Amino acid sequence: MSSRVLTVPNMISLVRLALVPVFAVLIVVGEDGWALLVLAVSGASDWLDGVLARRLNQVTRLGQILDPFADRLFIFVTLIGLAWREVVPLWLVLAIVARDVLLALTVPVLARLGYGTLEVTLVGKVATFALLYAFPLLLLAAVPGWLGAVAHVVGWAFTWWGVGLYWLAGLQYVAQVRRLAAAA
């Protein structure tokens, strides 16, 4: 694993981070078309940076921290924006934030044991994928007609799968921290 900072995948993650406030402003001012485009670009860039990191042999420690951080921040800001616009209910925000709070509680344990962040699991990647694709669909569901109806159904399907897998991945991370603590 490289300690390089300036890599193509890291730059893509930084662009995704820069899009977070752009999306927040767009959703607040009601520019749904542009907000939808920013969400779609964010979701696609999340996939792209991982693929490029592996193909270009540019997997870095920074990338392993930056990519999940960008994902969580985008998910959080998107949830807050969609809840503020009453596109998603408050319970969804609480369910996702509660999982991240649970994982934040493991950070001091990992630090005390001399570990950094844990590697993202396949379940965690799939959960993030599902959520990052659910949100644009839920925003698109506000469009009247068949497109909105289809987006509503598919968006909520992605949401339910995403939340379930997000919690499953979270519980896997907690179990991994418990194993590391028991081994120490």
TrEMBL record:
Q: Which InterPro entries match?
A: CDP-alcohol_PTase-I, CDP-OH_P_trans, CDP-OH_PTrfase_TM_dom, CDP_ALCOHOL_P_TRANSF_CS, Phosphatidylglycerol_P_synth
UniProt topology in membrane: Multi-pass membrane protein
Keyword annotations for this protein? Lipid biosynthesis, Lipid metabolism, Membrane, Phospholipid biosynthesis, Phospholipid metabolism, Transferase, Transmembrane, Transmembrane helix
Q: Where in the cell is it found?
A: Membrane
| Predominant localisation class | membrane
> Which branch of life, at top level?
Bacteria
Keyword Lipid metabolism on entry: yes
Membrane spanning residue stretches: 12-29, 90-110, 122-143, 149-169
UniProt key word Lipid biosynthesis? yes
Q: Which Pfam families match?
A: CDP-OH_P_transf (PF01066)
Q: Return the PANTHER family for the record.
A: CDP-DIACYLGLYCEROL--GLYCEROL-3-PHOSPHATE 3-PHOSPHATIDYLTRANSFERASE 1, CHLOROPLASTIC (PTHR14269:SF62), CDP-DIACYLGLYCEROL--GLYCEROL-3-PHOSPHATE 3-PHOSPHATIDYLTRANSFERASE-RELATED (PTHR14269)
- The family this protein is said to belong to: Belongs to the CDP-alcohol phosphatidyltransferase class-I family.
Q: What protein am I looking at?
A: CDP-alcohol phosphatidyltransferase family protein
